[in-house]
Amino acid sequence: MKIWQADFYKHNLKDEKGKPIWELLICDSQGHLIHEAKCPQSQANSDWLISQLQQVNRGNLPDRIQVFRPQSVSLLSIAAEKLGVKVEATRRTGALKAELRKRVIDENYDPVKLEKPPPQALPENLWGESWRFATFRAGDLVDYFSDRSLPILDMPKSLLPINLGIASTVSVPGVIIYGGRKSIYLARWLQEAKPIALNYIPTEIGKSGGLVLESGLVDRWILATFEDEEIAKAAQNYEQRKQASLGLHFFLVQPDDSGMTYTGFWLLKDE
């Protein structure tokens, strides 16, 4: 499958009259720059994007265009649809983000930083019965879950330990939710929400905090809260293990702790 990563945004660019300039940047998933173009704000529309996309590789378009910026999704989706190309809204556009950061002149400006809303409470009808922290050896993780029949299994190739250069002996941390009868509903909701990362957010150092799920482009959800010093310490260890595993972690939903049935599994890494 041929995939491009694209961004269309005004950043902090201005013309000689001080009016915003929009920039289109396209690269492939390996980080090779394919196309770049700029236009005044008065031309920043789907028609201009269509003309630009048709110029790239003499109109040899990809199967999919990945977009991480919410402000870019709408216009690029309209243009791509007219050309028969699917747009995927995803944070996982590492090659494009690296190219954008490479071009920054003002050190105080981060071209990939997005405003994120406060985390929202998880819908009450999806709450699981209990949860816990867990670890798997990097060398066992992929084989263990790929060999099992799960309704939902999300292990992007780019996040496989071997592709991240993680040694097989490294412990990859994660969170397990025991959902009981609600397991399948929770797993389906999560898959639709597109999980990215699961982070510990302390509210009082060493004593309380919560787990916040990063999903979609900028969505955030409160998955669990606690006021227990022992759990807070376990959460700190969880974050330390994430650093040791280069940010790789996992999220597992299963009905109970019998180890017989699994409902959903996701490999995660913050973007």
Automatic annotation (TrEMBL):
MF GO annotations: RNA binding
A Pfam entry, by short name: Tab2-like_C
RNA-binding protein Tab2-like N-terminal domain mapped to chain residues: 3-103
Top-rank lineage group of the source organism: Bacteria
Segments forming domain RNA-binding protein Tab2/Atab2 C-terminal: 110-269
InterPro entries: Tab2-like, Tab2-like_C, Tab2-like_N
Entry protein name: DUF1092 domain-containing protein
